[in-house]
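For the sake of clarity, the format in which proteins appear in this thesis is described at this point. Each number in the token line that follows is a code from a learned vocabulary of backbone shapes. One such record is shown here in full, so that the layout can be seen directly:
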Amino acid sequence: MTSITVSTAISTGRVQLVNVRQRSLLVAKLRVYLVAALFTFIGVVALCRIAWLGLAGEGADRTAEFDGQVPRGEIVDRNGVPLARAFPAYSLWFNPRALGDGPALVKSPAEVAAALLRIFPDEDLAALTAKLASGKPQYLRRRIMPEDANRIHALGEPALEFPRENERYYPQGSMAAHVLGYVSADGRGHVGMEQVYDKALTDPATRGNPAVLSLDTRVQGALEDELMRGIQMSAAKGAAGIVLDVDSGEIVALASLPSFNPNLIDQANVGNIFNRVTNQVYELGSTFKPITVAAAIDAGVIADMSRRYPSGAPLKIGGYEIHDSHNFGASLNVPEALIHSSNIVTAQIADQLGGLRLKAVMESLGMNARPQIELPAKGFPLWPRGEKGQWARITTMTVSYGHGLAVTPLHLASAYAALVNGGIWRPATLHKLAPNQIPAGRRVFKAATSARMRQLLRMIVVDGTGKKADAAGYRVGGKTGSAEKPGAGGYRKTSLIATFAAAFPMDRPRYVVIAMLDEPQGTQATSGQRTAAWNTAPIVGRVVPRIGPLLGVMPDATRDIDISDLSPLVANGEGE
């Protein structure tokens, strides 16, 4: 047998070679892992350092200041026109540690302040100097123009920085300022819908969707323009106005003048921030007379429009006397009483109606509570008190023609909507409503009573104190009101609140328009007259033709509400 011999030396050598290669590969892998771990560690350290620099040190001071600078969502009108939006802008920031541990400024604080004053002449030199000398990081000015930033850069002061931020901008300037409000330096909304929508406008989940208001900027502009013209013509202290959709309660325009510019809220005097429409209450005078008449018709107290009431002499109640502005004859019927604006006849109607029933109607119209509107500032009415909740006889009479009860112009607008829309009161709103969002409201007047009031209001404009509101083709109806303002020791005969409350078109009412002037004077432009017939009725007469086509109401001289059953009852003439 032949034996085969295998060399163990060769086998052993091959095994050793394999082991050496495995160890080399293992060492190489370990080195790669170590290098990768080292780079990972260095990266983590760098990221931590960056995060630390962002949250501490020089950045910490400014981060605290910028906490409120969250980009806000837009506010738009009912047609999508921007009313408030965010836009990128420069600010002037003082960083006293820009040069490290050295001096904050190259020049003295006084010299730098003087140089800044040449760029911004409206700044206060002493205040700027104090800020620069304080060594405290802070804003020196918000919203600066790029060319101003270039001029500041040329001063050669590294401590003067220009952070680019999201600022609030109101493209329409002062238009609808009392509705919008403003945003303060801390990024929070104040006064108007900026405050109401503050959370939604800053919440990342909702700020992408604009807040849509019921306003129409075209109508708002026309209303403000004509109210300002009224102020100038009558030398009045101020004005208020509303355009309200009678079927939904949506406010299409709301103006309080004088106004303010929310873009300049940091620099401007904001004394005009008070809203005359929703926050101030007034005795609105004879504009209440149609409400009293409607309540009496509803209750059956007025069943015959031709019935005559004594009017030739002042009405004496206890120690009081109720007068008319003129002597309109020995007697007046209801249409004539409204056309001439007779206090004497309205007081008699209210006396027959009784305080309980008149008070109940006023309560149904919301006149005993703050106006229902989204705005934060809402005035509480001056509501008459009586024994056990009952009004005194004289109180019932004076309230019937708008004295002794003070409400906001918005209260009046909502009441007139109920007078003409079929008798339904709805809360006013600044939200644009879809058809399925319109509230059902509550019935205050019968539909038949509302139909009669549309006739009577139209007659006041055709034949009575509202003639100057009669815009051709728009079938305007309404009522004047001129009330003396109360003061120390009684009413001030030289200070009036002049109001015209209107609706159009009266054959199918769509909108209520309220115009009010605070203390109009008898000027050459108003023929020396201070009353609503000469001051606020003309405002409505100019506003309606401007806004009607914008709202889909075209003039039509062939149409009007039928007043043929009432016209024969009226002997033409004018009152207040």
